[in-house]
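User: Teach me something about this protein's shape.
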Amino acid sequence: MAILTDEKQIRDQQAHDKQADLAGPGIGNYEDLERLLPNDYRSLLDRRDTQKAIFQVKRYIADNLCKALNLMMVEVPLIVDVESGVNDMLDRDGSRTPVSFHISNDRGQHPIDAQVVQAATKWKRVALKQFDCRPGEGICTDMRAVRKDYFLDHDHSAYVDQWDWERVIHPSDRSLAFLKDVVRKIWGVLVGAEKFVQDLFPVLRDPRFPNLPEELTFLHAEEILDLYPNLPRKKRETQILQKYPAIFIIGIGWPLKDGYPHENRAADYDDWITDTKKETHKDTHGLNGDILVWNPVTKRRHELTSMGIRVDADALRRQLEMSNLLGNLQFPYHQAIVNNQLPLSIGGGIGQSRTLMLLLRKAHLGEVSVTVWPKILKEIGAKKNIFVLE
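Assistant: First, the predicted structure itself:
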């Protein structure tokens, strides 16, 4: 009886860990953060050279991403009208909400209820139509956002910066083969950016910190769960990155055989519900995914980008129904998809500070971006020779 009780406790703890891991940042308190940050850190670049490197890399990635995917740079909103429904809720459990404010305007006669964007995911798809993009053409933005509900640690901040991009596709492009082709092009840009910045600043070539591999390894969320069935998501990612230092995880959002999705994803942009077994000959779903790498400085998993083929009318309805969010069909954005008024597309967001942190061998986002950090985090960093910009 005691053995059965112990086994049940283990299963209950595993279920609790998986549930808690669905949308969290991975570190939930500053005691753990202090323990996990490196003790032997020394920045390879001083602050002046870091700034020079930041802007060189940003130009390189923006220019080469546009070349690789046939994109044009466009302006992107920082605030949106609540009624538009184009703000990004990030996941489907409602745990992360945008900063909202009221604009009284004209002494209250013509007010606007507005939100600061959390991401430009849905806005970009509308913008494809606004800029009259054809299949094979797209847009790229220098996006800024605020995500107030993050736990602020070494690689999560309330301030978000991304190369947010979107491209029009044909119906026949809604496949894993097309998704992988686009991912490989993006990966080529990131690998090229690392070589580019090391040519400019040779000190970044440090044998302690291996360069990115030339090729990504593609894995389905289902395959990773099969390898590590008892581990929560982030621990599964950590384990698989010991074998493959750069991976693209496909199918994030679909409930796996243990009853949990690899991670919660919003129901109204990436397609995580489409059955892909015709291409994989396995029980797989989803046309989206994340690029993750092993960060040799922090010695932790490091997410660089989230992207995917976007929902068509059928996938949108099914994902909203599975998420108990069919009421969202009232919003103009959702109506436009259902009525085939928006183009089919693929898109994603590449974290700028995340990428710069990796390529410049930094231990903290605050070394490559300026935002707010709690006093306790600054004190922890100072003890470890990590100093954030202010």
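Now, about its shape. The two ends are 58 Å apart (CA to CA). The chain has a mean pLDDT of 92. If you'd like, I can walk through any region in more detail.
User: That's plenty for now, thanks!
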